[in-house]
Every structure is written in C-alpha cells, then in structure tokens.
Amino acid sequence: MKTPGVAVMNHASGGGALRAPAGDIAPQHWEGGPLDCGACAYALLRELPGEQGCEPGHACMQDIYARWIDRFFRWHPALGDEQLEHPYFEVRAIAARHASVFRLVAMIDDPDETVRLQIALRLPLAQLSRLATDPHREVRIRVAQRLSPVALATLRNDPDYGVRELVALRLPLAILPLMAGDPDRAVRMRVAQRLEMPALLRMANDAEAEVRRIVAERLPAPLLSRLATDDDWRVRWEVAQRGDAATLHALRDDEDAEVRQAVAERLGRAANREVTQLGVVHG
Questions:
Q1: pLDDT by residue (tens digit) across 143-190?
Q2: What per-residue string of b and e applies to 99-128 under the rule 16 or more CB within 10 Å gives b?
Q3: 55: helix, strand or coil
C-alpha cells in the first residue's frame, strides 16, 4: 500500500521531490486519502517551476491542510474567483481572500462561518451591514470593526457582549449614551471611558464599582465629591487622586488605609507648594 506522499511522487508529473521537510504534515486530499493530481483542474501547473506551478505537500489547492492551500492561492491569486464554490470550506475561505470583491456579495450566505469571516473582512462597506445579523459572533465582531461609526448603531443591542464592546469603542459620542445602561459590566466600562458630560455624571450611580472607578477618573474635579462616600475603596482612592481640597479633607479619616495615604500624599504636596511659593515671595 502506498503512502499519500509516495502516491503523489509517483504520479505522472515527473516524480519530483517534495519540498515539505521530513516529518512535516504529509499530503492528503481534503476528502481523505492520497492526492490525485491527475484529477485536479490545475494538473498542468505541476509541470511549471517554483511559484509558477504547484507542489503537493507545499502549495496545493486540493490538500486538507490550510497552509498548503493558502500558499497555492498566494502563488496564483487570479484563481481565487474560480474556487468560490469549491465544496471544501477551507478552499472557499482562502480563495475569498484573493477573489474580486465584486464576487463576495454572493457568498454572504455561505454555510460555513470561516468563509463568512473572510467575506466580512473584505466586503465593500456598502454591503457589510448585511452580515450584521450573522449567527456567528466572530463574523459580527469583524463587522463591528469595519462598519462606519454611524452604521454601528444597528449592533448596539447585539446579543454578544464582545460585539457590543466594539460598538461602544467606536459609536459616535452623540448616541453613545444609549449604551450607558448596557446589561454587561465590560460594555459599560467602555462607555464610561468615552462618555462626555453630562451623560458621564449619570454613570456615577452605576451598580458596578469598576464602572464608577472609571467615572471617578474622568469626572470634572468639582463633581467628585458625590463619589467620596462610595462603598468601594477603589472608587474613593480615585477621588483622592483628583478631588478638590474640600473633598480631600472629607476623605482624611477614610476607613481604608490606601485612601488615607493617597489623601495625605496630596495634602503634603499641596503644603510643600505653598511653602515654596511663600519662600519665593519673601525671598
């Protein structure tokens, strides 16, 4: 019985040595079993040298291994259009990387998400929204990365929090407040990192301390006093980094040592500045 590698080498293509190093993945047809170059539509390429041709175990469209398929289409990108309906999903997905963008719209409903993922990466923006309701999250994530900011509003209620996180990072600020009540903490954190006043102030009452901490990082200093009594020490610590003098004095006896230390350090720096300024005036 011949091994797949021997079967390829003994085929009537000249029996040239394979480039794949010893111990590497042996050539195998995507449906299983050895490759049969004679049944391939591109059999004549075997006769051409180097990157003008093809090479089982190195650059082959019929192999099960995606790396060999990818190399084949990198050598012959013009053949991408011809293989968009190939029965093996890896061939369709890799061919889609090289095919004309005008052919990709017809593949939006491909049954395999790997193919649709490649379509989402290259589809013209005018057609990209058609993949906004794709059943696979990775496809929708790619859509969220590429859609125009205004068009992203259609994905702000996506069922996957990872998609909504991307939307929160790119949505126009004018409509970002619509996501301030998102059910997922990670999404609201992204919103708090970008939101402007006065919408940011409303997030000071968020149920999650990590969200309130981000709000404390970004609120105007005169408004930080409302977070000086927050239940979480991390929020109060952020307040201590930026609060005004009245807020700092309110935190001097905070129950948490880290907060008290932060207050003491800021008050100490302020006192040193005053001493320095007095020295300059009286010097």
A1: 999 999 989 999 999 999 999 999 999 999 999 999 999 999 999 999
A2: beeeebeebbebeebbbbbbbbbbbeeeeb
A3: strand
The β-bridge partners of 55 are 59
Q: How far is 114 from 138, CA to CA, in rounded Å?
A: 9
Backbone angles phi, psi at 35, to 5 degrees: -75, 145
**In one letter, which amino acid is 102?**
F
How far apart are alpha carbons 245 and 264 in whole angstroms?
12
List, for the chain, all residue ranges whose pLDDT scores fall below the cut of 50: 1-18, 22
- In eight-state DSSP terms, residue 21 is P
The CA–CA distances, whole Å, from 272 to 232, 248, 268, 277 equal 30, 16, 6, 9
205: its two tokens: 């009452």
Q: Output the average pLDDT for the chain.
A: 88
Q: Cβ of 145: how many Cβ atoms within 10 Å? A: 14
* Structure tokens belonging to residue 235: 């929020």
Contact 35, 4 (CB under 8 A): yes
Tell me the C-alpha distance between 270 and 236, whole Å.
Answer: 19
Question: Can you tell me the distance from the alpha carbon of 257 to that of 177, in angstroms, rounded to the nearest whole number?
Answer: 35
Q: Residue 55 — φ and ψ, nearest 5°?
A: -160, 110
Q: How far is CA 205 from CA 98, 111, 190, 191, 277, in A?
A: 50, 45, 16, 14, 39
How far is it, in rounded angstroms, from Cα 213 to Cα 36?
Answer: 63
CB distance 222 to 233 below 8 Å: no
Decide: pTM greater than 0.90: no
